[in-house]
Sequence to fold (207 residues):
Amino acid sequence: MKGFITIEGCDGVGKTYQTTCLREYCKKNGYDNVVFTREPGGSDIAEQIRKIILDAKNEKMSDLCEAFLYSASRIQHLQDIVIPALNAGKTVFCDRYVHSSYVYQGLGRGLGLDKIVALNQLAVGEYMPEYTVFLDLSPEQAFSRKGGADKTDRMENADLQFHQRVYQGYKYLIEQDPSKFIVIDASGSCEQTHQRLIDALKEKGIL
Ligand code: TYD
Fold:
């Protein structure tokens, strides 16, 4: 879908920080026609679903339940935020989207990529991103830079092998369809990554 850009990466890569910097950059440089949002959550009902998903107390949640909750949050967020913005001709930057489900639930949890692709196809229909930015940093590098995982976050709390499957999953998806991805080396300083991201978005005509 034209103007729909999603941003992906493993936990701890600095995705939230980079998205905030990108938002600041857009503000400073007069890009008014942009909307920044995030998943899971991003709208009222979707945020309520987010709380259930990420609550460390919900350790008994089944993997399939988790997959459906992410999809449920996605449907609501699409309807409330993404579709109206795209219809108004805005560029939407969404922090995480279907690719997170493919790799976290499909490959990380091991539910199977095909199953999760099918579930999400049902949830989002034609609303697939024009491009997906991938902030490329391995989980080992990400967690060592950050000083460990956030123990209050049920997903971040998963073991390192889980996060390695997620990382390999992203790499696999990029290999399958390279023209849909904008891969950004996120191993340098925050400023370097920010500059790489801006340059890449300009090159694609998104900014
Ligand atoms: P969040 O605190 O937003 O992390 P981040 O800043 O890294 O995006 O938590 C989102 C968590 O949910 C993150 O661990 C990835 C996970 N997730 C999935 O497992 N499947 C999904 O479909 C989505 C959108 C996120």
In short: The chain has one domain: 4-203. The radius of gyration is 16 Å.
